[in-house]
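ok, trying the design again with the full structure, not the truncated one.
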């Protein structure tokens, strides 16, 4: 079927929303928002409140444009909060993998194929890393390339410093399971290194979502592993969806408790969730009375 929908003006978009049952008290204010936030972007926030099987996609409950905007703003605040917290985790993860492997296998350990499980993945990952190095404008990369000719690639503490979190998580997953890899997981109070690899991969996906202004509020994420035993306290109620936001937030707080005990992420998250619009905690996978647990206090 050929796509035949024509572009619409802001006024036409407002009329379409109203015809579907969305209450708009101030059309001038709505026009202002729609001039700066695209109709299609806001559609992701109205979608759960509409009957999308019908052609006119009418709203299934009474809801206002202002409430949708409040939900959009809330999601933006949550996204920024998460992004800043993941930065701490990413920097720590990068530091630990570089430090622990370098002490045993030297400056260029990341280029040693014998340390990896899958040689094809290894070749692809190192090729991707080299592209990121070539694109980098970091002074330390330029200094290495100007001063040294062998090895042609900078040491791990330079090379991996400019790699994306996604690439770093894939490289870590491909490393053979040994005392060093287990030691990295142990640093974060986790005995299961595969579980830790899963956490870093899922965090890299969420990080990219936040970095590209993607929706966090009701997004379905990759399945994240829930630990059976942990060195440090974890949530007692583990009955929740593992592909929703709450699950990954639990794991983020756990890691932050390990690396930055005085962090403010947990308190800021609880405060933000106290003002969650339209009772949307459930859509993000938050169980009932979640904030009553000692873990969140």
């Amino acid at each position: 079927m050929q796509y035949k929908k024509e572009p619409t003006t802001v006024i036409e978009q407002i009329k379409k929303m109203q015809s579907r049952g969305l209450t708009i008290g101030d059309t001038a204010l709505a026009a202002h928002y729609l001039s700066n936030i695209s109709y299609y972007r806001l559609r992701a926030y109205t979608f759960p409140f509409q009957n999308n099987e019908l052609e006119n996609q009418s709203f299934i409950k009474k809801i206002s444009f202002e409430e949708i905007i409040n939900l959009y703003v809330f999601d933006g605040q949550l996204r920024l909060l998460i992004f800043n917290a993941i930065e701490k985790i990413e920097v720590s993860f990068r530091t630990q993998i570089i430090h622990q492997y370098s002490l045993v296998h030297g400056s260029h350990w990341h280029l040693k194929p014998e340390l990896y499980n899958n040689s094809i993945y290894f070749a692809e990952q190192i090729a991707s890393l080299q592209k990121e190095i070539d694109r980098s404008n970091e002074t330390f990369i330029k200094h290495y390339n100007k001063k040294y000719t062998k090895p042609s690639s900078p040491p791990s503490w330079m090379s991996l410093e400019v790699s994306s979190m996604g690439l770093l998580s894939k490289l870590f997953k491909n490393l053979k399971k040994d005392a060093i890899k287990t030691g990295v997981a142990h640093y974060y109070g986790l005995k299961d290194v595969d579980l830790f690899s899963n956490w870093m991969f899922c965090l890299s996906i969420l990080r990219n979502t936040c970095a590209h202004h993607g929706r966090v509020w009701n997004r379905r994420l990759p399945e994240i592993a829930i630990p059976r035993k942990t060195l440090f306290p974890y949530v007692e109620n583990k009955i929740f969806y593992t592909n929703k936001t709450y699950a990954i937030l639990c794991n983020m707080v756990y890691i932050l408790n390990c690396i930055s005990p005085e962090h403010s992420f947990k308190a800021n998250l609880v405060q933000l969730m106290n003002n969650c619009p339209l009772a949307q905690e459930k859509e993000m996978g938050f169980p009932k009375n979640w904030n009553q647990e000692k873990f969140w206090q």
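Keeping the full-length input from now on. The chain has a mean pLDDT of 95.
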